[in-house]
Amino acid sequence: MSVAEKIIGFMEQSSWIRKMFEEGARLKAELGPENVFDFSLGNPNLEPPEDFHRTLKAAVDDTRPGTHAYMPNAGYADTRAAVAEYLSGLHKVAFGPEHVLMSCGAAGALNCALKAILNPGDEVVTFRPFFVEYTFYVDNHGGKIVTVPVLPDFSMDMASLEAELSPRTAAVLINSPNNPTGKVYSDSDLQALGGLLHRKNAEFGRTIYLIADEPYRKIVYEGVKVPSPFRHYKNSIVVTSYSKDLSLPGERIGFLAVHPEADAAIALMGGAVLANRILGFVNAPALMQRVVRRLQGVTVDISVYQAKRDMLCDGLAQVGYDFHKPEGAFYLFPKSPIPDDVEFVAELQKQNILAVPGRGFGGPGYFRLAYCVDDATIQRSIPAFKRAMEACIKL
Fold this sequence. Notes:
The chain is of the alpha/beta class. The chain has 2 domains: 5-49 and 300-393, Aspartate Aminotransferase, domain 1 (Alpha-Beta Complex); 67-292, 3-Layer(aba) Sandwich (Aspartate Aminotransferase, domain 2), CATH 3.40.640. It has helices spanning 5-13, 15-31, 50-61, 77-91, 105-117, 133-140, 158-164, 187-204, 265-278, 286-292, 302-318, 341-350, 375-393; strands at residues 37-38, 100-103, 123-128, 144-149, 169-175, 209-213, 236-241, 254-258, 331-332, 353-354, 356-357, 367-370. A 7-stranded mixed β-sheet has the order 2-8-7-6-5-3-4, with helices on both faces. Strands 9-12-11 form a 3-stranded antiparallel β-sheet. Strands 1-10 form a two-stranded parallel ribbon. The protein starts with a helix and ends with a helix.
């Protein structure tokens, strides 16, 4: 066989979103884009803010010598200093540039973190439903993913988490606001999680890191606050990107930050910086580093996503769907009206609606809708959602 068996298996695991993307392209070519309701991809449909375009132009026009030379593997010192200053104000923890690694998006940052902490056979525990590529990232570095359920409202099930922690646990990985549910974990959940990990560190005689994947941190609604993991647990690592809050997914720019008081913080940062090089990322894109340095705290207009959320939720509620209204991100994770979410997604497809089965995220019985789409798609889709629901009721 010319392709590794493991990769073939991984391709099958990650195929749902790819299948929906390919089906969407086929349907749009056949029926016209305006007749296909594509909620399959979390690709921001807002353009970057005007501040970004002005800053980008200034960075492109900068012709000082050395602008395009090699840089430190952690990224430009002035960019890391700007990020550290922003994080210090946000989390009320004194970060320095030495605690920040600029990365090729959140995925690059997460792989650097995992490369730095995992020994062969170590486990990383995460709540399900979860972003399926976590499985592959952990495997990249010799680890094993362990998933635990959440409570019915998608909040942390602390008892289930504690039952899965063991001397093999190297990290707990959380994603808040969550993809695919839009759940924001509460401050009390973070406090309880920090206390649990502190106790388990002593019990197991090893450091269990808390890794918070936060690309949607700034996309929250109605005054919801995303608690700081750094304030509840010193052995915390945050990975994030500017893909969602600045609408820059194609630019692959993000960062990793380590709590200044984490166990072996200097060695951990050194390991992550080395991983940035030897994994082939080498550096976060130079031009984007110079741009985001000047855009700390800037976002797209989040109220636009809130309006889309409300439009979709109101429409689906009116035609009988059951869901928890998301507090952040731009995903809705409704219950499938029939037990088989794959079968229901196929029914949606008959109505030219593209969604992703919940089992693709470890959450069977649900389906994911990415509502970062134009308003007309949401508005025109509601009758089609109603027809899909009625078809299932008749089964």
